[in-house]
Design goal:
Elements (H helix, E strand, L loop, with lengths): L8 E3 L2 E3 L3 E3 L8 H9 L5 E2 L3 E2 H5 L3 H5 L10 E6 L3 H13 L4 E5 L5 H5 L10 H14 L4 E6 L9 H11 L3 E5 L13 H9 L5 E4 L5 H9 L4 E4 L9 H9 L9 H19 L1 H7 L1 H8 L5 H8 L5 H8 L6
Parallel strand pairs: 3-11, 4-6, 5-6, 6-7, 7-8, 8-9, 9-10, 10-11
Antiparallel strand pairs: 1-2
Helix pairs in contact: 1-11, 4-6, 6-7, 7-8, 9-10, 11-12, 11-15, 13-14
Length: about 325
């Protein structure tokens, strides 16, 4: 049936209006961006990963990352760490902050994270991962989910084993990145490996990796995944979820014009200013401006000029040229 690939899905007792989710991205999926993604059709949004150890020692920046705003629910707070007790305490902090779901990062390929024993390193220690999950599940009343990868190196498929470990430890859902950790965010996803992992468990498996349009989402859903998590393709187009849903439903998806994109970016800057203050909010947006301006005339010059802006008025004056059809 047309449209049957996009549907509501439940993670534990949390009901999502659609099975299209925003994947967590460090330095990108803050509250301002998550609100835009929710408005753009995401059924679930996920925070940047937050260090359980930093929360344990009262780090103010980490606690700031737990803050959720009304317009973004349902929202998951993603935690990373290698100590079961610290992860359980961090999960309780996330629950107090209003998280609908706690997500455990067991797939980050970054060396610094892996050296600490967290992220993708947990894929090598299924018993430790199971302990972290079960301790976290027993410490909160909200559902706990886990994100990991199909393997650490190309050709390896740890997915089915790890999926069963997660399910048996009490996880309510899984997000599976279809590339090995060694590939980071490049190259094709292993749909066959994802299909085997999805078939190994009864809990929902959200497929992730390289989805840029309805065709990419369809491939993952037809491989047996219950949902799709979109990351990088949403960075300059947080309305991509509605576009994908339309495409999967057999409707013609209207692409976001450069004018609409710039209005979304200006809205993002306003939201950012509300969270961090005007000058700091603009400073935090500098790493993203290249994504938003990509492909637009004079983008390099506009990007350079953006780096010195201090007020929203200055940002609007710079970007107004792109808001006209």
């Amino acid at each position: 049936m047309p449209g049957s690939l996009v549907h509501a899905v439940s993670i534990g007792r949390v009901k999502l209006r659609s099975n299209l989710a925003l994947a967590p991205m460090a330095g990108i999926t803050n509250a301002a961006f998550r609100i835009l993604a929710a408005e753009g059709g995401a059924g679930l949004v996920v925070t940047e990963m937050v260090s359980a150890d930093s929360l344990k020692y009262g780090n103010k920046k980490s606690f700031k990352m737990l803050e959720l705003l009304p317009g973004e629910h349902p929202a998951a707070i993603q935690l990373f760490g290698a100590d079961p007790s610290s992860m359980a305490l961090a999960a309780q902090a996330a629950e107090r902050a209003g998280a609908d779901i706690v997500d455990i990062n067991a797939g980050c390929p970054v060396k610094k994270v892996r050296r600490s024993g967290a992220g993708a390193e947990l894929m090598l220690k299924p018993m430790l991962l199971a302990d972290i999950i079960s301790r976290t599940v027993s410490s909160v009343k909200i559902p706990v989910t886990v994100k990991f990868r199909v393997g650490l190196v190309a050709g390896e498929n740890l997915g089915p084993m790890l999926a069963r470990v997660c399910e048996q430890a009490g996880a309510a859902a899984i997000t599976l990145h279809g590339r090995p950790a060694s590939q980071f965010h490049t190259g094709p996803v292993d749909l066959a490996a994802m299909a085997i992992a999805a078939a190994a468990v009864k809990i929902p498996v959200f497929g992730n990796g390289g989805v840029e349009n309805a065709a990419g989402a369809r491939a993952i859903l037809e491989a047996g995944c219950a949902g799709v998590a979109v990351g990088r393709a949403a960075v300059f187009n947080p309305a991509i979820f509605a576009e994908i849903a339309a495409g999967l439903s057999g409707e013609k998806a209207e692409p976001v014009t450069s004018s609409v994109r710039m209005r979304l970016f200006l809205r993002f800057l306003v939201l950012n200013a509300g969270i961090y203050g005007e000058e700091h909010g603009l400073a935090r947006a500098r790493k993203l401006v290249g994504y938003w301006l990509k492909g637009l005339p004079g983008a390099a010059g506009a990007r350079g000029a953006f780096m010195s802006l201090k007020t929203l008025k200055e940002a609007e004056e710079l970007l107004i040229q792109y808001t006209k059809e």
